[in-house]
Give the backbone structure.
Amino acid sequence: MTAPDSTLPTDFADLGFGLNAQRRVLLVADMVESVRLMQRHEWETTQRWRSLVQTLVQDVLPAHQGTLVQRRGDGLMLEFESVTGAAAAAFECHRRADAANQGRPGDQHIVLRMGLHHAEVLADGIDLYGAGCS
């Protein structure tokens, strides 16, 4: 484990090159066993995942003051204004995934793995960088 970079300013000032140090509330989610699901039911899993993500982006995130930061295949990075909003959204995401799994065999369920982090990150208006979001 490496020590934190002590050169990062603590006042969240502009660092130059369009980078700003900021505190963010991040929720990272991915689909558990996505490789197995894709190998067995690629088309259906892809469509179900896309539908779930669309529901999360359109309904869950706005209700909890969240935004989609990154989308990578079976994973998402979401940002929230507060830790409580992120936690509430995480529970709602699980409820939506459970509802989408109703009537399907257990080996076809889309299960979400999620982690919540409140950290300092480097932001350039497009992407996030640094140990706080890795």
Q: What stands out?
A: The first strand starts at residue 14 and ends at 16.
